[in-house]
Amino acid sequence: MESESNTKTMRCKTCYEEYDPCEAGTCNMCYEMASEAKEQLLQEFKELERAYEQLDDKVAFLRLWSPVDQAHRGSPDPVFPDVVLVAPDDGLPPVPVPAHKAVLVNRSPVFKAMLEHEMEESRSGTIKISGVSYDVLRAFVNYLYTAEAWLDKQMACDLLVFAEKYQVNHLKGFCEKFLVSKLNWDNSLWTYAFAHQHGAKLLLDAAFTFITHNIHNLTKTKEYKELVEKDARLVVEIYEAFLSKRLNTTVFKYTSKEP
Amino acid sequence: MESESNTKTMRCKTCYEEYDPCEAGTCNMCYEMASEAKEQLLQEFKELERAYEQLDDKVAFLRLWSPVDQAHRGSPDPVFPDVVLVAPDDGLPPVPVPAHKAVLVNRSPVFKAMLEHEMEESRSGTIKISGVSYDVLRAFVNYLYTAEAWLDKQMACDLLVFAEKYQVNHLKGFCEKFLVSKLNWDNSLWTYAFAHQHGAKLLLDAAFTFITHNIHNLTKTKEYKELVEKDARLVVEIYEAFLSKRLNTTVFKYTSKEP
């Protein structure tokens, strides 16, 4: 036994230093249990790290070279595309984005329906995409192959809209997470309206939290006045959600206090 | 301060129970540090869990439907294959395995060279595969799309050989890990020879460890005698590696003891 009960000082089982009884921490049983628990947690952490590395290797294996990048590296036709996507740019002749039907069909139920049912796009091998720029289309196709995209706020919004239209949920979630990371009080109302319009639940909830944290200043902002003009029902929805949440919290607090 | 220095019993800061001084664990400073460290480790663990989940979603997104499974689900031509692989089976008419050039080129440098350089296979759209059964070819193609395979020992060996030939390192590693998990003293010598033949470093090292743990019984086994007959140089290599490792360990021990 390392603790010395007959002297004034005692010896710590962790640092082996002597200490005064008034500086005591845990009893021996808790010390032993904590040591075991720490060891187990460390073990689990290491196992998770190994599993993470293996999963990371799997991502690298499953990732495909994007035919977009391939074309930009100067290779003429190295990945055997069997379809092109075209986004008509204002005034400029459109630049086709090469792709593979198999990849489009795998990633998007909309492309699946379009290509598997002998529609015009399947026969011609050309899919016309409206309402997006060439850059956004390129980033979109790139993501379908690599699950990666370089984002700024504009690109994240454009890709989110595109991903919603073609039901590429993974890309939609990717853009949502990016926009959540860029949320602040100034853009929260605009973001709420945007998320609402495109059914982006994660982003909507995060924007709502920002708004409600500072709700007493809401009416003072220019964005608020503009939104009331443009879409008063949405503003009503925010107030309703705020009050409903508050009521629930109050009821919960009240209920919690009961014996 | 919860410890009571003027009484015989003390109070633990973890379980709040009283204990006798001779049952003391840590000093307060170590208790505080351990609590902080545990909190931090838990935090890191949760972050890693979140990152793991996100990576798992990415794997699910990047995984492609295997054209093999697709064909077996009764869909006639739903994934637009542009190449077939054929493994001539003894006597039976070969069953072609549909695939996509883009996927083969992405996953295997051998297929890349074959298909990108206007060789016979690229022109005809048929790749003849020798030395494997239809089942192995099917599992191989399936893995290129999904990074998954159902393995038993025979399938793991066959796929490892196939993966080595076509330089699909991820599949090779997958098979190696499976075979490592099936290692025991009885199959360690056979596995060592197999791993040596196919340059499977991970498996070779694991088999070597098994052999050296029981090296004094090595000469008594039937497998040993067979291997001496078949490939005596390999047996010499095992002895050399064993002695070299032992020498290194001894030198290290000796060096470590020096002042």
UniProtKB/TrEMBL annotation, chains A, B:
Pathway: Protein modification; protein ubiquitination
Coiled coil in keyword set: yes
Domain BTB, chain residue ranges per copy: 81-153
Stored Pfam families: BTB
Keywords: Coiled coil
Parts forming coiled coils: 31-58
Keyword hit for Coiled coil: yes
InterPro entries linked to this entry: BTB/POZ_dom (IPR000210), SKP1/BTB/POZ_sf (IPR011333)
Alphabetical list of PANTHER family matching this protein: SPECKLE-TYPE POZ PROTEIN (PTHR24413)
Protein's UniProt name: BTB domain-containing protein
Gene source species: Hibiscus sabdariffa (roselle)
